[in-house]
Write a structure and sequence with these properties.
mainly alpha; 14 helices; 0% strand
């Protein structure tokens, strides 16, 4: 009997420990399930949340100045959102619509030249080139391809109107989230510090790295796009092509989009010049776009983006292009941020292990 009585107190702590472990396991499973569900709920809003975060970081200095003059946080945040909308949304909307319309018009002109055969007169003095182009025409049906491109661009221009409601909703959501990021950003960061398993200093370093990454992406992408658009528009002006300012701006905007680029503008322009017999201008534009404009991207982008991201050029490229493939346009920011945050967390892990070894 004495042995059974003395054994009960020894078994009680084991049962208590087992119960605690079971509750902890159930709690962890519930938390994991909740995180998965929250992620699925947030996925439709991920692009708007991403661009709102980017705008919040970029316009934070302006918002801080406005907040000093306006004592009411709601009014200060609303004023910053209004300025951001005027600076970002309005110009992009106007330029995008004009760009698509001009591209569709250019494709129709090229298609008409190929369909009527007027381009043959332009190459009459170049028999060798003419034979090559005639062979290409019979093999590829250039007129049909150009006609399809014109129809595609025209339909896309019309679809911009049909999809305007969806686009407006995305834009409204972006600036809706931006308002709360600006107004309640400090409280949100403090809440993240409380729940994160990192120290306050480590969280501050993490926030700083995210801010630096966003600044690097925006600054580098914008700087390279400005240079490419300026060089492209300058050559359009020197060659006497129409609307050099518009097409330079269009090349700059396209240079910001991964996979795409300024070549989408200058290649059709060079082709149009060649079809009208202006071979010299066509060759100059092709050489300028293929050598100068493209080289600027390869030289300046690693300098402006890769160095500021504190990532190797290959990692920076993978993070951006891979992010776009996985998350769409928002992946241009999500990819590099994920890479930099992951590498920073690995540094924290290594420091913790080093402290434990000591």
């Amino acid at each position: 009997m004495a042995k059974n009585v003395s054994a009960q107190p020894e078994q009680a702590p084991d049962r208590l420990l087992t119960a605690r472990r079971s509750r902890a396991f159930v709690l962890l499973v519930a938390i994991a399930a909740g995180i998965v569900v929250c992620y699925l709920l947030a996925v439709p809003f991920l692009p708007a949340l991403t661009w709102a975060l980017v705008l919040a970081i970029m316009f934070h200095p302006l918002h801080r100045r406005i907040s000093k003059d306006l004592r009411y946080p709601d009014i200060a945040a609303a004023a910053t959102v209004a300025i951001a909308a005027f600076v970002v949304a309005v110009p992009l909307t106007l330029v995008a619509e004009r760009l698509v319309n001009e591209a569709a018009r250019g494709a129709q002109i090229v298609a008409e030249a190929l369909r009527t055969g007027s381009w043959r007169d332009a190459i009459a003095t170049y028999p060798r080139i003419g034979l090559v182009l005639l062979w290409i025409e019979t093999q590829l049906d250039l007129a049909g391809l150009a006609g399809n491109a014109a129809a595609l661009l025209t339909n896309f221009s019309a679809s911009l109107v049909r999809r305007s409601v969806v686009q407006i909703i995305d834009v409204v959501l972006t600036f809706y989230f931006l308002f709360y990021f600006l107004r309640d950003g400090r409280e949100a960061l403090n809440m993240l510090k409380k729940f994160a398993p990192l120290t306050s200093a480590e969280m501050d370093k993490l926030f700083l790295r995210v801010s630096e990454t966003v600044h690097a992406i925006v600054f580098g992408t914008f700087a390279v796009a400005v240079v490419q658009g300026t060089l492209g528009g300058l050559m359009f002006w020197l060659l006497g092509l129409p609307s050099p300012l518009l097409w330079g701006l269009a090349m700059g905007l396209l240079a910001m989009v991964p996979v795409l680029g300024a070549f989408i503008i200058w290649i059709p322009a060079a082709l149009s010049l060649a079809l009208t017999g202006e071979w010299g201008k066509a060759l100059i534009l092709t050489a300028w776009g293929g050598v100068v404009v493209a080289t600027v991207d390869n030289l300046l982008y690693p300098i402006f983006v890769g160095d500021r991201l504190k990532l190797h050029t290959v990692l920076a490229f993978m993070s951006m292009i891979g992010g776009v493939f996985v998350f769409g346009p928002a992946g241009l920011v999500i990819g590099p941020v994920t890479f930099t945050v992951t590498l920073l967390l690995l540094d924290f892990w290594r420091e913790h292990n080093r402290e434990n070894d000591n």
